[in-house]
Amino acid sequence: MLFYRQVFFVSDIHGLTPIGGNLAILRDWGHSLLYVNLIKQARQWGSPDDPVTDWPTSDFDVILVSDSFDLGGKYFLQAQGNAEISISNHLSGLILNKTYDSITNTLSAVIVLP
Fold it and tell me: Number of helices (H) and strands (E), helices first, in the chain?
């Protein structure tokens, strides 16, 4: 086997330097989990209201990642604004330590999936 290794230094990388790593198509049902922040690979918001930002301004839903493989573990949730959060009916899990700080307008919780 022949291996080829190319080393890039930060000074060599410009805005137009293509970089790839044989990444799969970004989908919530994919097995790649390219991001630590799951919202970056989530589906579109269920009911976006703001025509400028395309962010919801009222009740909405979003699928962060499908249950196509084991995602068991603890996930930290943090969002601006206060909201009711829930786990889809077909998944089991817990929502722990849900708090809202009115001074910083921040919602925090720990989501535990078995």
Answer: 0, 3
Please report how many Cα atoms fall inside a 13 Å half-sphere around the Cα of residue 103, on the Cβ side. 0
pLDDT, tens digit, for every residue of 63-114?
A: 777 766 677 888 899 988 898 888 876 678 899 999 999 999 999 999 998 8
DSSP codes joined into one string, 12-66: G--TT------PPP--TTSS----SSGGGGPPPPSS---TTT---SSS-------
Please give the structure tokens belonging to residue 3. Answer: 């291996």
d(CA 94, CA 2): 49
